[in-house]
């Protein structure tokens, strides 16, 4: 009985600390666990399929280019935010939207996220209304807390120059039903 209680306690402690997930655009494999550098995921599609929990960390390999949209799911807590950062040596991980989606990094109705040390762009063939590098949205929900965007390089986002047409931005924060 003592051993059962000890195992239960350890399980709660390990779960409370959160998991660390790794993503490597060259050496990753989406069929892997993502839970170590050697078991890193490869694509943003795999990251987008994961619902993250309080205390989790998502680390992108430095010196790599990831193409597409990064739409993060799940929420942290005040005591255990979810962290996105880089690992390894080299330039900041590059997340390139290539103008395909309205935002390269999309935070929709989530809170307690800390996102650091990424290079984000969203350049399409032509300017387009509503194109953003980072889009933080709160829709049909209460107040969302603790969204930290730090040391991000957001550039080359070619949204519309006309505000009335939906414009575009490097970083856009929207509340309510605006689209």
Written overview of the protein:
The chain is mainly β and 179 residues long. It has one domain. It is 12% helix and 35% strand. It contains 2 helices and 13 strands. The protein has helices at 2-17, 44-49; strands at 20-23, 57-61, 65-67, 70-72, 82-87, 94-96, 103-108, 113-116, 119-122, 131-138, 147-150, 153-157, 168-175. The longest helix is centred in the first third of the chain and has 16 residues, at 2-17.
List the helices and strands and how they pair.
Elements: H1 2-17, E1 20-23, H2 44-49, E2 57-61, E3 65-67, E4 70-72, E5 82-87, E6 94-96, E7 103-108, E8 113-116, E9 119-122, E10 131-138, E11 147-150, E12 153-157, E13 168-175
Parallel strand pairs: 1-2, 2-5, 3-6, 4-7, 5-8, 6-9, 7-10, 8-11, 9-12, 10-13
Q: Span from first to last CA?
A: 57 Å
The neighbouring-strand order within the major sheet is: 1-2-5-8-11
Counting structural domains, the number is 1
What integer value in Å does the Rg equal?
18 Å
Strand-pairing-aware structural class: mainly beta
Main β sheet profile: 5 strands, parallel
Q: Helix fraction?
A: 10-25%
What is the tally of helical segments?
2
The chain-level mean pLDDT equals 89
State the total count of DSSP E strands: 13
Approximate strand percentage: 35-45%
What labels describe this entry?
179 residues, 13 strands, 4-stranded parallel beta sheet, disordered N terminus, 2 helices, mainly beta
Condensed summary:
This protein has 179 residues and is mainly β. The chain is built from two helices and 13 strands; from the N terminus they run H-E-H-E-E-E-E-E-E-E-E-E-E-E-E.
């Amino acid at each position: 009985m003592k051993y059962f209680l000890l195992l239960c306690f350890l399980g709660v402690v390990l779960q409370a600390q959160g998991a660390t997930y790794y993503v490597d655009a060259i050496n990753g494999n989406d069929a892997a666990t993502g839970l170590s550098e050697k078991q890193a995921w490869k694509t943003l599609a795999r990251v987008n399929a994961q619902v993250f929990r309080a205390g989790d960390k998502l680390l992108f390999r430095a010196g790599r280019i990831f193409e597409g949209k990064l739409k993060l799911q799940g929420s942290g807590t005040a005591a255990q935010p979810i962290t996105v950062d880089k690992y390894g040596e080299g330039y900041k991980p590059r997340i390139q939207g290539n103008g395909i989606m309205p935002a390269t990094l999309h935070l929709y109705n989530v809170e307690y996220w800390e996102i650091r040390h990424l290079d984000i762009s969203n350049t399409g063939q032509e300017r387009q209304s509503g194109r953003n590098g980072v889009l933080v949205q709160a829709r049909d929900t209460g107040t969302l807390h603790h969204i930290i965007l730090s040391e991000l390089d957001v550039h080359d986002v070619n949204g519309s120059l006309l505000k009335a047409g939906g414009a575009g931005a490097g970083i856009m924060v929207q509340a309510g039903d605006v689209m």
